[in-house]
């Protein structure tokens, strides 16, 4: 049985070049970057070259990149420090953020009593910018935290537009860019934004490594204490092989961006066409022109199919998702779709299908055949 992986918003396969790079670093460059001898200096040089290489893609300085263990850690750190150290009293966010943001904010609310305001979400999953502007007309020290590309529906936030609005109202702006880094151009010279975050395993790099972009002179303080790594902002011996792998993955993502984006975009359109032929009542959850590698669809199946659909597809070797990864396999409705769909539609089966350049039309044909047999 051919296995089909269409769950690339959860995680991605590691590129061969990345595995080669990491193997080389693990084999030959095992020094601790904090050591002053040649082994340490060698590891330090790999670290700093990786930082420089990553920074270049976003037109920022290498010092503005802080390595972390994942996207979740980067989000936690930024949000916690803006409240604890920058004395932000109010955070404007949305109910469709990833739990790495939503749960962090709830914990900050109970610890520091910050005010959280949720900006309205339109039925197509887009953020209501008019509502955001209305919310911004308060005097309190505020941070806006809105994700770039939604991991469940692929709806896109116009970072530049929101950045300009935040600047106009003199508030800080953080965006969870985990789903867009490596998959679209992000020019941080042009976008007025204070903080973004990344996770290597979403762009064909290794798991367990990510980074935060923190604009110069941000005033953020660490949440971990220990060594002086990462300019004292993130203690702990750096995972040199992971970081080198992440830099290599990002390099290849941007080298191949044009061709891979066009290829994936065509695959997604092919899937939409096939779904519309086989299941004419299918509905796209989110905007029709959502991000090119994510498609979330409401299938015209009866409610009783909802619980077993993933299992059924899995039996046929097909991996897709019902919501974000941490919810896959549970029948709890997605908190993102809950903001967009009627209670009636929420009970019906929705699927998130997410692509990479490793997918083929054959994968899609197999998915369609499997869905027809349900
Ligand atoms: N933010 C978004 C939008 C995500 O999709 C994910 C991963 O599912 C995360 C954050 C968490 O990233 P990590 O797995 O690196 O902790």
Descriptive key words:
374 residues; alpha/beta; Aspartate Aminotransferase, domain 1; Aspartate Aminotransferase, domain 2; 2 domains; seven-stranded mixed sheet; three-stranded antiparallel sheet; 37% helix; globular; binds pyridoxal-5'-phosphate
Describe what this molecule looks like in 3D.
By secondary structure, the protein is α/β, with parallel strands linked by helices. The protein folds into 2 domains: 4-12 and 256-372, Alpha-Beta Complex (Aspartate Aminotransferase, domain 1); 16-255, Aspartate Aminotransferase, domain 2 (3-Layer(aba) Sandwich), CATH 3.40.640. It has helices at residues 16-28, 38-57, 71-84, 99-112, 129-136, 159-168, 240-255, 257-278, 309-315, 343-346, 361-372, and strands spanning 4-5, 65-68, 90-93, 115-118, 142-145, 172-176, 195-199, 210-214, 283-284, 294-298, 318-319, 350-354. The two termini are 18 Å apart. The structure holds pyridoxal-5'-phosphate. Pyridoxal-5'-phosphate binds at residues 70-72, 98, 100, 147, 151, 176, 178-179, 199, 210, 324-325. Belongs to the class-V pyridoxal-phosphate-dependent aminotransferase family. NifS/IscS subfamily. It catalyses: (sulfur carrier)-H + L-cysteine = (sulfur carrier)-SH + L-alanine.
């Amino acid at each position: 049985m051919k296995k089909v992986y269409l769950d690339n918003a959860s995680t991605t396969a590691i590129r061969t070049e990345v595995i080669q790079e990491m193997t080389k670093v693990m084999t030959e460059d095992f020094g601790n970057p904090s050591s002053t001898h040649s082994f340490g200096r060698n590891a330090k040089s790999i670290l700093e070259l990786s930082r420089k290489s990553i920074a270049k893609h976003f037109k920022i300085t290498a010092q503005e990149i802080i390595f972390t263990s994942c996207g979740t850690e980067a989000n936690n750190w930024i949000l916690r420090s803006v409240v604890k150290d920058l004395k932000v009293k109010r955070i404007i966010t949305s109910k469709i953020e990833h739990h790495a943001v939503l749960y962090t904010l709830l914990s900050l609310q109970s610890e520091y009593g910050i005010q959280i305001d949720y900006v309205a979400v339109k039925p197509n999953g887009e953020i209501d910018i008019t509502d955001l502007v209305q919310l911004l007309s308060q005097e309190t020290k505020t941070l806006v935290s809105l994700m770039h590309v939604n991991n469940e529906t692929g709806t896109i936030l116009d970072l530049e537009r929101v950045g300009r609005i935040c600047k106009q109202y003199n508030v800080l702006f953080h965006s969870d860019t985990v789903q867009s880094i490596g998959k679209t151009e992000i020019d941080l010279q042009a976008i007025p934004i204070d903080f973004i975050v990344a996770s290597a395993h979403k762009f064909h790099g290794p798991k367990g490594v990510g980074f935060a972009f923190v604009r110069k002179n941000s005033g953020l303080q660490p949440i971990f204490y220990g060594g002086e790594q990462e300019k004292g902002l993130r203690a702990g011996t750096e995972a040199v092989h992971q970081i080198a792998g992440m830099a290599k993955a990002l390099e290849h993502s941007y080298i191949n961006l044009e061709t891979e984006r066009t290829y994936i975009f065509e695959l997604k359109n092919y899937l939409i066409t096939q779904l519309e032929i086989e299941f004419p009542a299918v509905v796209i959850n989110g905007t029709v022109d959502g991000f090119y590698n994510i498609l979330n669809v409401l299938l015209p199946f009866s409610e009783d199919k909802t619980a077993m659909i993933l299992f059924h597809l899995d039996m046929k070797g097909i991996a897709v998702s019902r919501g974000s990864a941490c919810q896959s396999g549970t029948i709890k409705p997605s908190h993102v779709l809950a903001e967009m769909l009627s209670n009636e539609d929420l009970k019906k089966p929705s699927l998130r299908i997410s692509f990479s350049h490793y997918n083929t039309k054959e994968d899609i044909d197999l998915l369609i055949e499997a869905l027809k047999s349900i």
